[in-house]
Design goal:
Distance between the termini: 72 Å
Structural class: alpha/beta
Number of helices: 32
Radius of gyration: 34 Å
Number of strands: 25
Strand content: 15-25%
Bound molecules: adenosine-5'-diphosphate, magnesium ion
Shape: elongated
């Protein structure tokens, strides 16, 4: 060991601060360089790679070729606006997603100047002594100088997920996960010099599309296919009617632009990304876009108790000793926490016990440890007592400790535990646990280190209070109103679990089940009673898997929390795996969402956030697609009726830009509906049959209204330009009122939406009344009577929506 320490010019106490600083200057930061995002001009140019944009450019060239400079100009302007808007959206999404990454920082526990400290893993340097624990991510390439049954998963390098045992002098590689045990390592290489750093390019993964994005993409493709067929048909029909080729071509292309929801995927990603950054600000960091949509439809939350529902700030408040000194000896030495003044570094339970036993003066060299694990629910250390004798110290779940005790230490006199004494101690345990205390039992034995956790001698119990978090009760209530079930899953004692679950409102009329009972049930039996269970106690993390699987079989969207290595499979299996901010790296990696503040309330807020985003996506998808449908039906209708087309190419492009633009974007940022947490979770699809039908009806209403008014105007003998202007303006007003239809009934005012609508309307007035713009858009001013017709006819869209709201629930 000293070899290694000399090689890296360090000591067991770690580097001094000044030395660490010096080395940081020399070796740089412990970072893997990220693949830089595409440069901005590439992002900009990539917007041109689009069939519609290509067609528009062809149309512009054709218009220019026949001397139609104005239309050519308008089309080029439309191209530019589309490209710029697409660029801005994509850029904002990128920024939002990047900023989320900055929330996820890696930490490392090191020894410096003889003190254990938690530091930002970036500042780790060569020669640092790293403290390794179960569940942590190896922060750099290390050489082990101490190993207590340490094993790790090196799949990041080997691709093979299995536990590899690691002895002293073995190497540990950056980003591998410690699956069990603990140890100390010396940093050998950092950053890009590590093994993973050398292959960093290969392992960086691209974000995949979310299912919702795929579905919306598919809808877009279907609509595009329809639109293209329609455009070709219109192109042929109009051409056969004798309209010049180039003009027909421009009309067909503009119609395609107006009818294809090409902007939808980009707005969707942007809405999700912005929603995610908003959630991150309230401590819920969503690691995958997917979970934002799933969150909204969550039907059950399975929550840990300690640290999620409770503070995880423990204090010893009750005790029961048969030998007080021995209990304190065990509490102090069979303990891995460190007190930095009053701050606990390490396990909170350990820390509270350490504080309680602080006064007790004892130090015996530790020679071995069987670490705490949530399956055994106890930990054991072995120490040198004197020259000849060793002593085994154990603490853990009291009934489990008691089970392993053969003797009892009554202030120094050792007796065999009889049934009566056992009964008395169990009663004591029940009593403490019934007070909602986490109860820990203590035991020891001298020599016989072969089978350390057997034939122990009992010394006492400590009861630790861990109060529920402040807002938990309220959040539980909120979930109940929102139709979301809550289940507590804890490794703690049944009575402790029940007392707390009752207090915060989780345990109402349901049942409690222990891990043992769960194991005894067959899958079918369990499936039957699973819906009634509200609390699981003394559960092993491995059993969480069975719980998630069963709940999912019962058609639930399950959010499941976890923090340890053993929780990882269940987190992966859950619809939404939720890891704790101070949980293990392994759990975080398996999760979809990380709670920075470890707080149950944050899950509930995130669900609310998810529901809001879901609603808003529904709003603009419905809005945009009904515009598309309306435009297609209007053009097809007039063409079939042998009327002139009501919109010219410039007007169609205008529709696409003005309507695609402000109002739709604003629908994406509407506030939460007032009853958002008072309605049951909505399962599944944004594009339900109901929504599709509504879209179709809205499109039909717009088309009929527009065609009727257009026909009427033509029949009064006004110029075609005038009739077109009125029809076009009517169609625009339809869209604006339809955007208004989409507003949220929210506490937050819809001022941005209203502003968007007003701006669009003012822009419309500009192209109606400014002579230069009239020339470009071939419009003419319209008078009072036209406006009255427009307002009356367009209001049908409001009425239609009202009726649909009533009839089509
Ligand atoms: P929870 O689900 O509440 O987080 P844990 O899995 O952390 O429960 O703990 C389960 C049980 O393990 C506890 O009830 C306690 O009896 C025992 N235990 C927890 N922490 C320690 C510790 N540091 N030392 C010994 N036993 C512990
Ligand atoms: Mg725990």
């Amino acid at each position: 060991m000293s070899d290694i320490l000399t090689r890296y010019d360090t000591s067991l106490d770690g580097l001094s601060s000044s030395e660490a600083e010096k080395r940081q200057k020399e070796y740089g930061l412990n970072e893997i360089a990220e693949k830089p995002p595409a440069p901005l001009y590439i992002l900009f140019l990539s917007q041109f790679v689009d069939i519609l944009i290509g067609l528009l450019i062809v149309a512009a060239v054709a218009a220019y070729a026949i001397g139609d400079v104005i239309d050519a100009g308008v089309i080029i302007l439309a191209v530019m606006l589309n490209v710029i808007m697409g660029f801005i959206q994509e850029y904002r999404s990128q920024k939002a997603i990047e900023s989320l990454k900055s929330f996820i920082t890696k930490h490392a526990i090191v020894k410096r100047e003889g003190q254990v400290k938690e530091i930002d893993a970036k500042t780790l340097t060569v020669g640092d002594i790293v403290v390794l624990e179960e569940g942590s991510k190896v922060p750099a390439d290390l050489v082990l100088i101490e190993s207590k049954s340490l094993s790790c998963d090196e799949s990041q390098l080997t691709g093979e997920s299995k536990a590899v045992a690691k002895e002293i002098d073995d190497k540990l590689y950056m980003d591998s996960n410690i699956l069990s045990g603990n140890g100390l390592g010396v940093v050998e290489n950092i950053g890009m010099a590590t093994e993973i750093g050398k292959i960093a390019d290969i392992v960086q993964e691209d974000d995949e599309e979310t299912p919702l994005a795929k579905r919306v993409g598919k809808l877009g493709k279907t609509l595009s296919a329809i639109a293209i067929v329609v455009c070709i048909a219109i192109f042929i029909m109009e051409f056969l009617k004798g309209i010049p080729l180039v003009e027909t071509f421009m009309t067909a292309v503009s119609l395609a632009v107006a009818a294809i929801p090409e902007g939808l995927p980009a707005v969707l990603t942007l809405t999700l990304a912005l929603g995610m950054s908003e959630m991150a600000k309230s401590n819920a960091i969503v690691r995958k876009l997917l979970s934002v949509e799933t969150l909204g439809s969550c039907t059950i939350i399975c929550s840990d108790k300690t640290g999620t529902l409770t503070e995880n700030k423990m204090t010893v408040v009750e005790s029961f000793y048969t030998n007080e000194d021995k209990t304190h000896l065990i509490g102090k030495l069979c303990n891995n926490a460190v007190l930095d003044n009053d701050k606990i570094i390490g396990d909170q339970t350990d820390g509270a016990i350490l504080k309680h036993c602080k006064e007790y003066d004892a130090s015996l060299e530790r020679i071995d440890e069987i670490p705490l694990d949530s399956n055994r629910k106890m930990m054991t250390t072995i120490h040198i007592l004197d020259g000849e004798n060793n002593i085994v110290l154990s603490k853990g779940a009291p009934e489990i400790i008691l089970d392993k005790c053969k003797y009892i230490d009554r202030n120094g006199s050792i007796e065999i535990i009889d049934a009566e004494t056992k009964e008395m101690i169990l009663e004591k345990i029940g009593e403490m646990s019934g007070h909602a205390l986490r109860t820990i039992g203590f035991a020891y034995k001298i020599n016989d280190t072969e089978s350390p956790e057997e034939d122990l001698t009992f010394t006492g119990l400590l009861g630790l209070i861990d109060p529920p978090k402040k807002d938990v009760k309220k959040s539980v209530n909120e979930c109940i109103n929102a139709g979301i079930g809550i289940i507590m899953i804890t490794g703690d004692h049944e009575k402790t679990a029940c007392a707390i679950a009752k207090d915060i409102g989780i345990l109402t009329d349901g049942k409690v089940m222990t891990g043992k009972e769960l194991d005894r049930l067959s899958d079918e039996e369990y499936l039957k009673i699973a819906p009634e269970i509200q609390v699981y106690a003394r559960v092993k993390p491995t059993q969480k898997m069975k719980i998630v699987e069963t709940l999912k079989k019962l058609d639930n969207i399950v959010a499941m929390t976890g923090d340890g290595v053993n929780d990882a499979p269940a987190l992966k299996k859950a619809s939404i795996g939720v890891a704790m901010g101070d949980g293990t790296d392994v759990a975080k990696e398996a999760s979809d969402m990380i709670l920075q503040n470890n707080d149950f309330t944050t899950i509930v807020k995130a669900i609310e956030g998810g529901r809001k985003i879901y609603d808003n996506i529904k709003r603009f998808v419905k809005y945009q697609v009904s515009t598309n449908v309306g435009a297609i039906l209007t053009i097809v209708g007039t063409s079939l009726l042998n009327l002139p087309l009501p919109f010219n190419p410039a007007q169609l492009l205008w529709l696409n830009i003005v309507m695609d633009g402000p109002p739709a974007q604003m629908l994406g940022i509407e506030g939460a509906e007032r009853d958002i947490m008072e309605r049951p979770p909505e399962k599944g699809d944004i594009l339900t049959k109901n929504t599709m039908l509504q879209i179709l009806i809205l499109g039909i209403v717009m088309a009929i209204g527009t065609i009727c008014v257009f026909t009427y105007e033509l029949s009064t003998g006004v110029s075609t330009t005038k009739a077109m202007t009125v029809a076009f303006t009517l169609f625009v007003v339809y869209q604006l009122l339809n955007a208004f239809n989409g507003r949220a009934n929210s506490e937050k005012s819809s001022k941005f939406l209203y502003l968007g609508i007003i701006i669009s309307f003012l822009l419309q007035l500009l192209i109606l009344y400014i002579p230069q713009l009239q020339t470009i858009f071939r419009t003419t001013s319209i008078d009072m009577i036209d406006w009255i017709i427009i307002l009356i006819v367009s209001s049908t869209i409001l009425i239609t929506q009202k009726i649909m709201d009533k009839v089509m629930k």
